[in-house]
Design brief:
By secondary structure, the protein is an all-alpha fold. It contains 3 helices and no strands.
Length: 75
Amino acid sequence: MARNSTSMEDLRTKSDDQLTQQLTDLKREQFNLRFQAATNQLERPDRVREVRRTIAQIKTLQTERASAAAAEAKA
């Protein structure tokens, strides 16, 4: 199985602003890929899965960071 182009370790080293920017870019790419799929112009079908997984990883990381910040604020 091919490794994702972006690993969780790579994502963890990025700042919140960088993650937000990457998430925006990936959502835009996901929209374009869906459009290409609908018009049968998709060159790399596996890219849809990669983008979807990377979006999920970024959202998971953002949730973890938000939970950690909330826990730190309580303490």
